[in-house]
């Protein structure tokens, strides 16, 4: 038509149709394949929800057993891939380690290049679900300078992950059911969120018919940024800074309102939710339960509560419809579980993986998919010529 509409940041433009997740941002509603997030968070598990997102229906007990079993059988990393971690400094941010290692997976599984072969898509799905938590735990161990453990396939998905992170060869690992349950619930809350920046990245890369490992590695990089998944890490840094500087919550909020450079209330605001993020409600409940059950007292949780109370009563935040998002309280829980701050966004990535896979598969299976190729409005110099 010759007419190109400008929509910077995709505020009004849908990039795709999708049957996976429904959000009503004004009403604070989130549903996966039609099921309200509140019901799934209370009554199901990470793997069940992963199955729901990827295959469209909740699994029968047999289907779930088979899915779980397949994932357990693929947890090992190739021994050579383990040496990959040796090439990185122990100070490496685990999100960079994660995206690089997932990208490297496609060098081991070149069958994944055959993106239209359903069998290859299926085995790549299982490999990703099985191996991402192992890579994540190795990124953590690498930072600690501790030996990598082999996965223990007698354990559930979440317990295996916790053992890989917190177990050592020196003593037996004791599963803490409070921790497992809480982590499983947090992962469910992160499993999908329709066309967010990382998922859109996965789809865009996938639309070129790049394999699923490369597409998801790109999604992990998009998630890394502090305006997206990196916000959970940024929230904890913000709370610790408020505590250490002694400036007090009210003063900090004043600086946010003055829009001092680089000062935002991290964990607040959302492109889609213009009311309380339904995930944040559930995380807030979990924060109280988990800290109590683990016997942890954290002044940062008190600061977070105070910050929320002040912000929710302030016209600046009311007018702009800024409410706590999913990242506001998660960091406090991850910290109580023993994860270092730099692992927080990695936990988000493990949570989001089933969503990324579901979207990649939906895009890949849709005959209407075209390579993603946005237009631009050119604002550079008009034609000019070399003066020679
Ligand atoms: N603190 C202070 N002011 C804010 C904040 C905030 N966290 N978020 C938005 N605003 C203000 C912003 O300054 C603008 O004000 P004005 O109209 O006076 O210019 C107004 O609210 C609209 O903001 P926006 O930046 O145009 O909104 P957006 O939809 O482009 O951005 C966002 C959404 C999530 C990037 C943003 O709210 C933000 O930076 N939040 C902090 C980071 C964060 O918590 N991110 C996690 C999002 S949820 C999980 C995830 O995706 O990973």
What does it look like?
With 388 residues, the chain is an all-alpha fold. Helices cover 56% and strands 3% of the residues. The protein contains 17 helices and 3 strands. It has a 3-stranded antiparallel beta sheet. Strand 1 (21-24) and strand 2 (29-32) form a beta hairpin. The protein is globular, with a radius of gyration of 22 Å. Bound molecules: carboxymethyl coenzyme *A. Carboxymethyl coenzyme *A is lined by residues 9, 196, 227-229, 231, 256, 264-271, 320, 322, 325-327. The site of carboxymethyl coenzyme *A has 20 residues, from loops. This is Citrate synthase.
User: Ranges with pLDDT <50 over ≥5 residues?
Assistant: none
Total strands: the figure is: 3
Bound molecules: carboxymethyl coenzyme *A
Distance between the termini: 38 Å
Tags for this entry?
binds carboxymethyl coenzyme *A, transferase, 388 residues, mainly alpha, Citrate_synth-like_lrg_a-sub
SSE blueprint:
Blueprint lengths: L20 E4 L4 E4 L2 E2 H7 L2 H10 L5 H13 L5 H6 L9 H15 L9 H27 L12 H10 L10 H14 L6 H10 L5 H13 L6 H15 L3 H9 L20 H16 L5 H14 L2 H5 L7 H11 L6 H22 L23
Antiparallel strand pairs: 1-2, 2-3
Helix pairs in contact: 1-8, 2-17, 3-6, 5-6, 5-10, 6-7, 6-17, 8-13, 8-17, 9-10, 9-17, 10-17, 11-14, 11-16, 13-16
Carboxymethyl coenzyme *A binds next to loops.
């Amino acid at each position: 038509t010759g007419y190109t509409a400008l929509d910077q940041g995709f505020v009004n433009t849908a990039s795709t149709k999708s049957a996976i997740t429904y959000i009503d941002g004004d009403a604070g509603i989130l549903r996966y394949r039609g099921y309200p997030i509140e019901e799934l968070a209370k009554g199901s598990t990470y793997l069940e929800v992963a199955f729901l997102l990827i295959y469209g229906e909740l699994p029968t007990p047999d289907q779930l057993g088979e899915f779980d079993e397949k994932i357990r059988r693929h947890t090992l990393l190739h021994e050579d891939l383990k040496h990959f971690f040796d090439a990185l400094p122990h100070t490496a941010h685990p999100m960079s380690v994660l995206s690089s290692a997932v990208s490297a997976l496609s060098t081991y599984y070149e069958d994944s290049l055959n993106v239209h072969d359903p069998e290859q898509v299926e085995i790549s799905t299982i490999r990703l679900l099985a191996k991402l938590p192992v890579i994540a735990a190795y990124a953590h161990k690498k930072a600690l300078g501790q030996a990598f453990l082999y996965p223990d396939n007698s354990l559930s998905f979440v317990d295996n992950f916790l053992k890989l992170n917190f177990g050592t060869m020196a003593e037996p690992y004791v599963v803490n059911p409070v921790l497992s349950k809480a982590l499983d619930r947090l992962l469910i809350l992160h499993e999908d969120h329709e066309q967010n920046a990382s998922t859109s990245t996965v789809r865009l890369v996938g639309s070129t018919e790049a394999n699923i490992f490369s597409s998801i590695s790109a999604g992990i990089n998009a998630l890394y940024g502090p305006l997206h998944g990196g916000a959970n890490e940024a929230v904890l840094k913000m709370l610790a800074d408020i505590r250490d500087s002694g400036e007090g919550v009210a003063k900090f909020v004043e600086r946010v309102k003055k829009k001092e450079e680089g000062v935002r209330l991290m964990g607040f605001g959302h492109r889609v939710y213009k009311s309380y993020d339904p995930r944040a409600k559930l995380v807030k409940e979990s924060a109280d339960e988990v800290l109590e059950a683990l016997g942890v007292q954290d002044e940062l949780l008190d600061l977070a509560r105070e910050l929320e109370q002040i912000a929710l009563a302030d016209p600046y935040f009311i007018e702009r419809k800024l409410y706590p998002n999913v990242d506001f309280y998660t960091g406090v829980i991850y910290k109580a579980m023993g994860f270092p701050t730099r692992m927080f966004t990695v936990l988000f990535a493990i949570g989001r993986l089933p969503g990324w896979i579901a979207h990649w598969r939906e895009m890949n299976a849709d005959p209407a998919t075209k390579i993603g190729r946005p237009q631009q409005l050119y604002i550079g110099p008009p034609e000019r010529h070399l003066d020679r």
